[in-house]
Amino acid sequence: MSGELSHATMAATVVEADGFAGLRADAPLSIRLLKSPAYRCMTRSAHLVLAKIVIERASGRFAITHAQFAAYGVSRDGVAHAVAELEALGIVVVERRTAHANAYDLSQRWRSIGSIADAVAIRDRARHFGLTRRRKVERETARRVRAQRLAQLKAMIDAPLDALDDAALSILRVIADAIGRSKGVSGASVSYEAICDATGAHRNTVAASLRTLRELGLIDVRHGGRRASNVYRLSDGWRGAQPRPDRVSVGAAP
What we know:
Blueprint (H helix, E strand, L loop, with lengths): L6 H10 L14 H4 L2 H4 L3 H15 L4 E2 L1 H7 L3 H13 L3 E6 L4 E5 L9 H41 L9 H16 L5 E5 H8 L3 H13 L3 E4 L6 E6 L20
Antiparallel strand pairs: 1-3, 2-3, 4-6, 5-6
Helix pairs in contact: 4-6, 6-7, 7-8, 8-10
């Protein structure tokens, strides 16, 4: 059934996990859990994560990696949300967290949730908190990457680069790296395709960024025989350029 779990499927899993949970009313994974509001409001990814935990624990393995969850059918982005959901609903507890794998145990805290409405509210708060935390981590990571990129470029180019956005910084780095690898004295031939592939930027964004870099006096461009193979060199024309107080945006061509 392409990974989808019904109550009957989960019940069969409990029966097959011989000696682990059984069908006792007080067992960690039981018929009572399967009928509970906490279990009935779980998302598909949470069902898959719970099933994988049951399977691994039945085999005596308590530590599970994100890659194992992904191989079972949970998207890598969905694992953290599903685990947060299961923890909040009191079905699973994470006993040990490491960089490579977490150790999971089953909990009975789900018994305190008395209604579907309460369970849904708990589930949604947990998933929202997990998404907010993930976005914060992504923003912090982006800031660190930008700071590293600036430091690397400033080591090669004695120019004010704080006014550039991420697209222009990435493209300037590609050009600087190409010049560093080139046998020429001061320039390198770089195609639009190479810049797009290296930065993941659209051609329109590349064109707008190159125009901004020229206007700021950071690069010179000599058009080659084909438009896609221009020759670029770093420029010190920025020394005579007027300072711009605001960060330059090159998301779209002017």
